[in-house]
């Protein structure tokens, strides 16, 4: 990353332009984490991240506004109902809820309260981080008291939610060792939502190749410091692109204010970025950098839903 920055400076180019070969101009749609659970919060929610995606926004700046206004509308709803409004590791609220599904209902309510249309303007993305509650070959939803489920039962749960809520992306809906379950989930749900692999692929081209061959998912979460070098990360993105898979450029739960990944997302033209909520400086730094890039690109900037036909 340091060498890439130095090379861009030496050429007098923005980092995204140097990394992207000078033709990078696509701003990513943000996945904004607004409700936390799992290992990222001390609450009653099993699933780690409930995110909003402003898929109907006309620009990145407007997408950020859609997400921020939904975030603050959610805070008002939680406060009115007597729920805690402290935030988790990635800036999402972390209240004790009656069930995992209540998080979805609250988010839909917040989108509408922000004056936006659920599904059209703002959709929902999930990251249950199922490896964190994997137990004895199944899944233990102990925090919410919903008992244990098999892989098939987890997929059936998500299928029901997808039918009733504006969900467009499901990341790590099953555990990293559940390759058969992932394949079955993609076969059942992959034509309805984006099935994203994170823990199962760890930005590693060897695992991604296996996933492509086996139909394990249809998208990969891409983390620069998970695989270790910029070169390897680009190789992972290119491999996904060749297979027709989507990519989501992502932060880590432990972050700094470095904004390299914002430039990288534009350079790769991935169209999606996951960098946390509309609060906490280490998250906001990425959004601020993307605002700068969009202004710098001016009329050349492209933005749009990665799910548009």
UniProtKB/TrEMBL annotation:
Superkingdom of this entry's organism?
A: Bacteria
- Required co-factor? Mg(2+)
Against CDD domains, the record matches this protein to: enolase (cd03313)
The EC number(s) given in the record are 4.2.1.11
Enolase C-terminal TIM barrel domain segment(s): 24-309
Name the enzyme's class.
lyase
GO cellular component labels: phosphopyruvate hydratase complex
What GO molecular function annotation could you give as one example from this UniProt entry? magnesium ion binding
GO biological process per UniProt: glycolytic process
> Per the record's keyword annotation, is Ligase included, yes or no?
no
UniProt pathway: Carbohydrate degradation; glycolysis; pyruvate from D-glyceraldehyde 3-phosphate: step 4/5
Q: Which family does it belong to?
A: Belongs to the enolase family.
- What does the protein in this record do? Catalyzes the reversible conversion of 2-phosphoglycerate (2-PG) into phosphoenolpyruvate (PEP). It is essential for the degradation of carbohydrates via glycolysis.
Q: Name the chain's protein.
A: Enolase
Please give the organism: Azospirillum palustre
């Amino acid at each position: 990353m340091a060498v890439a920055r130095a090379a861009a400076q030496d050429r007098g180019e923005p980092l995204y332009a140097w990394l992207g070969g000078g033709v990078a101009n696509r701003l990513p749609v943000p996945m904004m984490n607004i409700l936390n659970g799992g290992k990222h919060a001390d609450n009653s929610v099993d699933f780690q991240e409930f995110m909003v995606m402003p898929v109907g926004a006309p620009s990145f700046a407007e997408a950020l506004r859609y997400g921020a206004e939904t975030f603050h509308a959610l805070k008002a709803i939680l406060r009115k109902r007597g729920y805690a409004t402290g935030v988790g590791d990635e800036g999402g609220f972390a209240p004790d809820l009656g069930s995992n599904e209540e998080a979805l209902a609250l988010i839909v309510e917040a989108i509408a309260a922000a004056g936006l249309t659920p599904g059209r303007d703002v959709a929902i993305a999930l990251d249950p981080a199922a490896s964190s509650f994997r137990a004895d070959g199944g899944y233990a939803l102990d925090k919410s008291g919903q008992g244990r489920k098999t892989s098939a039962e987890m997929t059936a749960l998500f299928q029901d939610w997808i039918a009733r809520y504006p969900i467009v992306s499901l990341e790590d809906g099953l555990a990293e060792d559940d390759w058969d379950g992932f394949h079955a989930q993609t076969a059942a749900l992959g034509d309805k939502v984006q099935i994203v692999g994170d823990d199962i692929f760890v930005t590693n081209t060897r695992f991604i190749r296996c996933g492509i061959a086996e139909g394990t998912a249809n998208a990969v979460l891409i983390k620069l410091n998970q695989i270790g070098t910029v070169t390897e990360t680009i190789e992972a993105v290119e491999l996904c692109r060749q297979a027709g898979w989507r990519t989501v450029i992502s932060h880590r739960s432990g972050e700094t204010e470095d904004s390299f990944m914002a430039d990288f997302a534009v350079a790769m033209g991935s169209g999606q970025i996951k960098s946390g909520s509309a609060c906490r400086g280490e998250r906001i730094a990425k959004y601020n950098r993307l605002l700068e890039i969009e202004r710098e690109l001016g009329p050349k900037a492209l933005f749009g839903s990665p799910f548009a036909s």
